[in-house]
Fold:
Amino acid sequence: MNIAQIETALQKILKPFNKESFIYDLLLAYGQPKASIKRLQEGGLNLSKTAGEIIWKKKLFFKPVEGEDLHVLIDTIKADDKVTKHDPRFIIVTDFQTLLAIDRKTSDTLDIPILEIAKHFDFFLPWAGMEKAQHQNENPADVKAAERMAKLYDEIKKDNPTKTPEEVHNLNVFLSRLLFCFFAEDTGIFEKVQFTNAISSHTQTDGSDLQAYLDKLFVVMNTENSKRKNLPHYLDAFPYVNGGLFRNKHQAPAFTRRSRQALIDSGQLEWKDINPDIFGSMIQAVITPEHRGGLGMHYTSVPNIMKVIEPLFLNELNEAFESAKGNNKALNQLLQRIWNIKLFDPACGSGNFLIIAYKELRRLEMRIFKALSSLAFSNINLGNFYGIELDDFAHEIATLSLWLAEHQMNQEFFKEFGRTKPALPLKETGNIVQGNATRVDWEKVCPKIEGDEIYILGNPPYYGARVQDSEQKTDVRNAYNNEKIHKDADYISCWFIQAAEFIENANSRFAFVSTNSICQGDHVAILWPRIFKKSVEIFFAYEAFKWSNNAKDEAGVTCIIVGLRNIQSLPKFIYKNQLKIQVSNINGYLANAKNIIVEKRADPISPRPKMVMGSQARDGGFLILSPLEKEQIESMYPAASVLFRKLVGSEEFINGIERWCIWISDNDLKIAESIPPIQTRIKSVYQFRISSKAKTTNGYSAIPHKFAQRAHKNTGSIIIPAVSSERRDYIPFGFMDEKTIISNRAFTIHEQAPYIFAFISSKLHMVWVKATAGRLETRINYSSGICYNNFPMPMLSDNQKESLAVFVFKILEERESHSEKTLAQLYDPDKMPPGLKEAHHQLDLAVERCYRSKPFESDEERLEYLFKLYEQMIEEEKTKGTLFEVEKRPTKKKK
DNA sequence: TATCCGACAGGAA
DNA sequence: TTCCTGTCGGATA
Structure:
């Protein structure tokens, strides 16, 4: 059973409506088996002893009554043990006028005239095996409307294939006009159900004349009443709408019986309940087929939009209002200011940010009117709202949604003040432009006139350097003026660069929701030097949070919010763990510290063994084996033993997982080729590499028996897992023997130097790593170029090196005494064994003594110290090209 | 030859 | 479903 069938069945119940069979018809409509219904009807399945009542285990409690208070009744039933022990999913009571129902699983309730049951078909969908849990926090009206539009869209599309961009645009415009009409007839812009009724009574049921009818109707809506001639009443009854929505001639699509019916069905929804802010995104997802799987996965939730709007401008306006209260002159000035504010979303989608911002401004305006006892009308002009959107349909919807928002706010205004402007004709909102924001001149979209107060906001698209298509690559290259550095930049950085340019030296600020990548690791050095070259600063930031909205498939990404303004001596804030913390500066890492940027470097900043990335198989998985696979081959071909090596990456090392790889030295190639299962795997590697789209990988098809990149040396080594949970106080490192292959998800130092182990294991290093490393989501993503090579280390005497070894061995000893546990368990911050913790603490102190005699008191102090050292080392390298000796530095300062 | 990261990915609870 | 935590390999220097 699909939704459409259920709806049709429900409509059939109503005509003619039969009290006796109602409940059975209802169950049948949701696809319950006829045989069960029959048994229920005959009493076999009915667990209730009371006449008239029906209890169907797990499914239903039903009680028809006359003249009783239904609400009281249903509350009693809800609490009745005799009912609940059968665990019915739904409780339904009705006097055949009103129907009340409770969904006992979700606690949703239904309270409707029984004849409207078809409208609320979704309530009982769990009977048909369809749960509504995924929409629980979503406004059901939005979801329903989006689903209905999807159905209508599919029907129309069937008979009106769109091939050219013009045809697509045509259909997009048509749909936004329809949406407007549906909304208008439910919210008092038109007469109640005027549009839907007109269609159902004035067009043929086979849909044949609907196209012509709509074309005529839309012309009427674009014609002022005074200019209309000889129109039949059913057309003339429609008001003049204008506002650009019906201005251009776009032919309506052709209709069939089915698509006409789908249109009428859509009209029958209660459109007045929809939220244009979120609804727009859902509709957009429905219409853009590639997004349909993840219905609205990229729309920004209202709470997150508020996180942008409030610090960007709303808090300030609210404060201004509070302090102006009682001072009419100041209040009027504030009104003037609000009326002139421009809002600009250069990636506006279906307009969520603009709509929420618009609504908030209208609400503030209402509060001011109240404080002034003003009799004025709203003067916040949709013309001050600007947007750029790549997707044509979204951009149509954005314009439409702004109108809907305006109308909803006018209604709110009417409730409060008893007066409002007429809804029609619509005013111009010509400012949502379709285009690629990275290529459009923003000032052409949102003109910057002397004195204008402009806020730029939004949630531009994020694409890492490896997932951009060639167009996007070009966009990025242009944003970075062709500088080489652009090649690792995220797509969103284009918006940051353009916005920074836009606001510089203007009365303007911007804030975006962004991927957290741009404020981490490698990317900081790519983007932020360019931004800070201008006279702008970060004035607020939200620390990383996981992306979430109410869509079925949320996008998998971790976000931040960053706000920038021209340099000013006003407070700055970091929002962290629900706290708002005032800080003196916010740097490119979103930390309260100087604008230092740690660039990756190929070699260590002071003498120390090189750290390199492990060996990368790039093999399609064919060179890598589970212990079982390895044993199977070995048991048949004992000679294969020499070809296997243990393979250790982050996961294997931290979680103690055993994994093997085929590691064939040139001498062993003959053996390998003599073993059929190995031979097969080598062939598979060849296939994988030759068919890869990466040119470098194709090249490695010449050596299919080997890892593509072989960092391994036959020496003992230190392993540095690349990715590690941020919850741990220490990233666990370890020594590896010369046989073990370290994979590309870990780094390695080809030397078992205890003093290096000591330094990288120290708290000082951890603090440094947490500050500078890239992240996988919020995990630590260690890198040699950033974390290790830049880490300021003092020069050490041999004695010092040796004395550090003692502390390292103590740590290994402590780990060994819990050898049954994995490192993940040992380094779980909540369960770390005291002995291990103490061993690490002792090592921390020993390492810190190598830097200075005075102990550190906090991680902040450690970090500040390290950054100062880092700066000195960089400075020294630049000026003298010599290496820095840490021991002497602090004493020099004292003198 | 060596990297750094992913509007993620995949197993555990 | 929610929580937790790290693979694999592309693209480019």
